Structure formats: structure tokens, C-alpha cells
Description:
heterodimer; A: alpha+beta; six-stranded mixed sheet; five-stranded mixed sheet; 5 helices; B: mainly beta; 13% helix; globular
Amino acid sequence: MNPQRDPVLLEEREALTRYLDSLLQEIPEAPQESESQARTEMPVPAPVKAPPTPPVAEVRTEVPAPVQAPVVEPSQAQSPSPEVGPPEWGRERFQCLGLRLAGLTLAVPLVKLNGIIEMPDEITPMPGHQPWFLGLVRHLDRQVKVVDIARIVLPEGREYAPIEARHVVLMDDSQWGIACEGITEVMTLESDAVRWRSSRGKRPWLAGTVIEQMCAILDVDILARDLATGQWSVSTAPAPARRR
Amino acid sequence: MKQEAKASARGPTAQYVTFRLAEETYAINVMQVQEVLRVSEIAPVPGAPHYVLGIVNLRGNVVTVIDARRRLGLEPREPDDASRVVIIEVSNQVVGILVDSVAEVIELGAAEIEPAPNVGNDESSKYIQGVASRDGELTIVVDLNKLLSEEEWAEMASL
């Protein structure tokens, strides 16, 4: 082991903890006793019980349907609105896929995923668009709009650096693709193990946080809606060249 | 019969001149293209918008030349041997646009042009009519009528 890596790891962990803390600051304080009770009664499944992580080499395959996936009404999926408490898919046990980008781990509910593809060698940038819109890629006769959401989800005060995207996670009927640096694992979460946002505030795309896994859960429907119409105040650093 | 069905699926067709900008392929309606010129001396115009390179003398007529890279928000670069000025007519005005190179004339069916991606509601991208997939690559179809706003066209006319 390289002893020089330890400070970096500590720094990353500290930064992540601060980020999650900042996310939680927008949640009204819950009574301490109910919080501890929830943790006691609904422990997060141990890592050994979690389904195996899909190997990176096989990420071209479609994401399998989650166990006990709740049914989402089409009308609700088409007109998402920031809800108070868990979204429909989070009201029972659900599964999430972990994404790594810009040093953060974000979780996306499997029920909202359409697939994962490797970052293509070529991506067609569209002139005159926001810097977080990396461009279009062709996938199964569809044009996927690939976005770098690190510019959006990075906490304030943290400097943006272009990510080295290796995968694109498809969502919202494969209209959108989230560029990410890596896929971590599939997490099975109990609804009560998640601190759901009670109000969406500045981050309507944030469904909740999972302290045990140190990650934020994305509300994909809201994120897709805001990507199409959003006017985020984001870093204007130039996007990295995608041609290799 | 098959050819008729195929033509029907493509919808009404039109020809487009394709050109290259920053390693991407763009297409403009051939009916709006008058001619393609090699880059000659371009006289700068003081006080002109940043995307206006200057004016050229085209057989006795003064034609304003726009740098397509700058207009589309791309990194500007110096013209080289492959660079061309495409003379177009839009809104009863004749202007030239400087592009990296001119590629070919292609035919596209209306159904082959997918609408421009709606991302972030950017005003600056309204000139993108749509994208068409050809040979596995995407071609960006530009609506020249929206390349400049009415005010900008008026400003162009006054140069």
C-alpha cells in the first residue's frame, strides 16, 4: 500500500461527509429518538447480502429489473413533481445503482434506469448549449443527450473539474444519459433507511440521502424534467474533448 | 415499389450542402447557397459584432463575412487551405460564412431530420433545425433563417 494515498482518502471522505451534511441541512431536524429507532429497527442490509456488482465488462447489457419493483403510474411518470417524502418507487424496499462522478457517489433507482453503455469514442457536441450538455450519442437508433451532472450536483465551494467519463447511464426512456466515471454497486435499500427529503428546496433532483452508503439518491424524473428546462448556475469551465 | 415506400418513409426530400466545423458536420439547405469561394482578403469592419470577420468584394458587390465558428460559440481558428466562404442568401441579404471546409451535397428526407435536442432551453441554439444520422455519424442541420436574429440581420445590412 502506498502510504501517501491515505491523506487523499481522508480528504475525499471528509469532503463527501461535508457534502452529505450540506444536503441534509435542508431537511427539517427529525426527533433524535425516532431517528435512532429507525436505525435500530430497519438496519441497512450488510454489504455481504447485497447483490453482486455487475462487472464493468458487461455494462452494455440492460439493467435487470429490480426485485419487488413498485409499479409507477405512467401519468405520474410523465408529469413529475417534487414530492414530500419518498417517491413512489421508494415506498418499499428498492434497489439503486451507485455511480461515481467528481468524487461523489450518487444512487439511481434501478426502476428508473434504461441501461448502461460505455462512453463512446465519439460524441457529437451541439453548439450553443449549456456546458453540462456534452452532446449526442447514437444508441439503438435513438439520440441520447449526454450530460455531465457533476456541474449541477457539486456542493458549493468545490471546484469543478471535468470528469473522465467511462460510462453513460441511460434514463427517462433513454432520452438522457448521465456521464459517470464508474459504476460502484447495486444497493438494496429499505425505504426507512433513507433520509428522504421533506422539501426539495434548491435541489429538487435530490430524493434523499443514505448515510450508511454515503451517497445521495437522485430523483430521475425530476432530474430529467429539470435538464430539459433548467437554468442552473453552474461552472462554465470548458467541457473536455471527447474524441479519442 | 420498395423504392417508393422508402421514399415515402423519408418524407419530402431536399438537398443540403454539408460543411465541417470543429470536426463536426453541418448541413444547410442548398437553395440558400449561391456559391462557395476560397478565402481571399477580408477587410475588417470597425465596430462590427465579434462574429463578423469583415467584408469582401464579390464581383463589385460588398459581402459581409461571418465566422461560423464564432457565431456558433466554437473555438475560433485561423483559415487554412481547406477553409471556404459559403455565400448564402437569407432574408433578402447576401452574406458569406467562413467554414473549416465544404464537404458535399446530400439529400435528406424531412423524416430523417430529428428535432433539435431540447436541452436547457438555450436561446443561442435556436438555429439548429435538427440532426440527421448518416453512416453512423450525426449531421447537424442548421436553419440559416435563424442563424441571426432580426436585429442582427438589420445590423448586418447596415455594415
